[in-house]
Structure formats: structure tokens, C-alpha cells
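Task: encode each sequence below as C-alpha cells.

Item 1
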Amino acid sequence: MKFLYALIFLTACNSSIAQNDFPIYHWEELPVHFEADTIYALTFSKMKLSEVPKELEQFKNLRHLDFSKNRLSELPDFIGDLEFLSYLNIEKNRFEKMPFVLCQLKKLEFLSMNRNLLITLPACIEFMFGLAYIDLYDNPIRSFPDSFERMRNLKKIDLRGIRFGPSFQEKWSSRLPNTE
């Protein structure tokens, strides 16, 4: 039985790293000696952060960034300079609005903003050309900007926990016919 658990654990570990082709480092457990440009994935999950560490600015090659389960309400401007970022998780924070700096992330494919305090999304969201998945679960969102319908690569939106009336749902289903 122990062998089976070990096999399942190793398979899970290998598939998560193989999926990204790089290890995901926790901020507090970075190797003693490292070069920032060789780190591609960082997590700050559950660190009780109220602001992003300034030192993160040196990690220009990040592809995966996780700020889940913190106390963030804004992101610094340098986040917009992470031109290779494809995965961003800012779920379970204190964002009342989507940070405008995210609109600069042209290659971002996955964005999780669930369980924040978002009421609407900025019109600039249409410039997130690579965005294929956005998780807005359990936010008090009241409306979407018209520019949202110009997001041609968007394949899936998670809107569970948000109560929209039938007319709102019909309107956006017809505006985003290729989005689940």
C-alpha cells in the first residue's frame, strides 16, 4: 500500500513540474544561491502579505506567480513588466477592483481572482490577448465592460457564486459564443 501512495505522489509531482517544465519555488524557500533570471515560478501563498515584496521586481522571466490567500488589495506597476507571465493566481485576497497593471500582461493565459471583492472589470481587459481562462468565482461582480466581448481567446469563465439574472446571462452568452 505504501508503494501505491509513493507512486501516486511521484506521479503528481512529476506531472505538475512537467506541465510547466520548471519547479515552483516558495518565496521563503528559495535556494541560498540563485540567479533571478533562472527562476520561472514563485508562490507567495498563505504568507499574509498586504503588499508585494519589492525584491520580486528582479524576477523578469517569471511564467507562474501565485499570490493566493494573502491580504493584497493592489499590485505594483512592475507586475506589468513580467512579459512572460502566463499564470497568475490572486484568489482569496482583498482586491475591490482588478488591478489595471494586469492589462499589460499580453501572454497571461490563466487568471484566478476568485473570492475577492470585485464589483466590475476594467475596460482594458480586452488587451489581455492571451487570456484563455479567468476565474471570478464568488465575487460581487455587477457588470462586465463591453470590451469583454472582444476577448477572442477566452475559452472559459468561472462565474459560480455570482447571481446574475436570466437577461444578463443571455446577453453575455450571445456576446461570448466561444466561451464556456
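Item 2
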Amino acid sequence: MNYRFAPAFISHAFTPFYDFVTTLGGCGKSLQRKVLKHANIQNNERVLDIGCGSGTLVLMIKTKHPHSYVVGVDPDEKILNIASQKLAKNNVGVNLIQAFAEKLPFEDWSFDVAVSALTFHHLPTEIKKQGLTEIYRVLRPDGRLLLADIGKPYNLL
């Protein structure tokens, strides 16, 4: 299935305002803190953030668990640039990779934990299924996934 990728907020023109808008809408750092809490990440675990966006969650994970290996993936090069700048400003080392959820560039069983916040509602059902299949593939047999998202909107509001 082919689908057309759309950046967060539909246009790259709004990408620089991503953190501000998500915080204003109640889906910024407060949501990321809840995801971090419920993911129950331990030091030395290998963690993958699918749809890492501006890097808020990967920054929180690596700051709280400095001995964990953390990778963020997102298909949007512009939002990854913002994430990279945020990580550099905080002197935090996280690998950021441009990739889609349905085509993860990792070996089988590469991660202990996968998290995804506010990503899957952007994807058509078939791509969601492919993405979950990929996540299952890259998680270790005892690995875990925490997916936090909203439902697809029915109108602009």
C-alpha cells in the first residue's frame, strides 16, 4: 500500500512550532513524562522511539537512563533536525534515524523496549499493521511496546 507522508500539523511550515503546539494542546512534555513512567525503562536497555518527532521523549529517556542505548526514528527530516539541535543543546547522545515505522532499518531482536507517542494516528490502518509487525520483529522476545496515541479526528476540530 502506498500512502503520502504528511508532516505533523500537515505542513512543514508549522514544524518549528511543534513543541509549542503540542504543549498547548496538553500532548507535550506532560504526555511524554507519562509514557516514560509507564514504559518502565531500565538502565542498559535498548530503547526505540518510533515517530520521535522533535526528540522530547528520547531526551527524557536518555537523561533518566544514561546507560541505555536510545534510538529515535522519524520519517520527517525537518523534525529530526529540530530533535538533533535539542539533543546537542542538552549534550545528550541519542541516535536519530530517518525511517518509517513500517520499514525499520534494524536487525531482528534489536531492542528491549519500543515506545511511540502521537504517531500511529497519522497512519492508514494497513501501514499501522505493517508498523506493528516491524516493531514486533525488532523487539527481543521478552521486549515490550508502549504505544500512546489519540484517535483519528473526524473533522478539523
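Check on item 2: Helices lie at 18-24, 29-39, 56-64, 77-89, 125-138. The mean pLDDT is 86.
End of task.
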